[in-house]
């Protein structure tokens, strides 16, 4: 009797293989042939689950964002309301350990490819919208009106992106990440305290 294949598991293995290649060698290196080899499968097996390279890359982008979203939701659930919760969310969003550093490298590789793929651009826009809505929900109790809230979401998202870019470009070892963490955390707290004072 032929062995039954768990399609969800198989898809996740291909996505994980794609993410590994993107982290190590960049987005351009994530060809169907290389991803199949990384997953110890044939290209034909891979195309049974993903019709083309773009479909595989979109799945990898969703997987990366999904992992980050789950971690930040957990950080929010385990922190006190108000500024402590916002601080926990922002710090969880930043590449302050090896796994999150690799995740950010993957994300930046996708950002560099957005101009060449409308499908990737749309997918990335959906993820940005989800992230902005997540921040909006947690900022809403501190910011008085809708237009001001919109601006504060933009500022906080930009702070995360800027600090993440600095960490990715400056930190190449776990020791460097640990050394940079206190300064990064202090910058986050300074921004959040200033936000609270603006609307106190």
Which descriptors would you attach to this protein?
mainly alpha; Tetracycline Repressor, domain 2
Give structural notes.
78% of the residues lie in helices and 0% in strands. The chain is mainly alpha-helical and 200 residues long. The mean pLDDT is 91.
CATH topology of the domain at 61-198: Tetracycline Repressor, domain 2
Distance between the termini: 69 Å
Average pLDDT number: 91
Q: Could you name the CATH class of the domain at 61-198?
A: Mainly Alpha
Helix amount:
over 70%
Assembly of the depicted chains: single chain
Count of helix runs: 9
Sheet-strand content, in percent, reads under 5%
Report low-confidence residues grouped into runs of 5 or more.
none
CATH superfamily of the domain at 61-198: Tetracycline Repressor, domain 2
CATH architecture field of the domain at 61-198: Orthogonal Bundle
What would you call the shape? elongated
How many runs of DSSP E, i.e. beta strands?
Answer: 0
- H/E element string? HHHHHHHHH
SSE topology:
Blueprint: H1 7-25, H2 32-38, H3 43-49, H4 53-77, H5 83-93, H6 98-113, H7 118-139, H8 146-170, H9 174-198
Helix pairs in contact: 1-2, 1-4, 2-3, 4-5, 4-6, 4-7, 5-9, 7-8, 8-9
Brief write-up:
The protein has 200 residues and is mainly alpha-helical. 78% of the residues lie in helices and 0% in strands.
């Amino acid at each position: 009797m032929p062995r039954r294949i768990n399609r969800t598991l198989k898809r996740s293995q291909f996505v994980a293989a794609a993410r590994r290649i993107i982290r190590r060698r960049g987005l351009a290196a994530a060809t169907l042939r290389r991803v199949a080899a990384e997953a110890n499968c044939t290209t034909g097996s891979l195309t049974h689950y993903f019709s083309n390279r773009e479909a595989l890359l979109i799945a990898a982008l969703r997987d990366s964002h999904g992992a980050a979203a789950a971690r930040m939701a957990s950080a929010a659930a385990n922190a006190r309301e108000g500024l402590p919760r916002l601080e926990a969310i922002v710090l969880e969003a930043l590449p302050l350990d090896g796994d999150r550093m690799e995740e950010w490298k993957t994300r930046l590789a996708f950002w560099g490819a957005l101009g060449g793929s409308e499908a990737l651009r749309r997918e990335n826009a959906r993820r940005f919208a989800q992230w902005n809505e997540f921040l909006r929900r947690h900022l809403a109790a501190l910011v008085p009106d809708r237009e001001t809230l919109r601006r504060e979401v933009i500022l906080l998202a930009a702070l995360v992106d800027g600090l993440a870019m600095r960490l990715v470009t400056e930190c190449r070892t776990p020791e460097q990440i640990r050394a940079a963490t206190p300064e990064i955390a202090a910058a986050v707290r300074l921004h959040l305290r200033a936000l609270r004072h603006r609307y106190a």
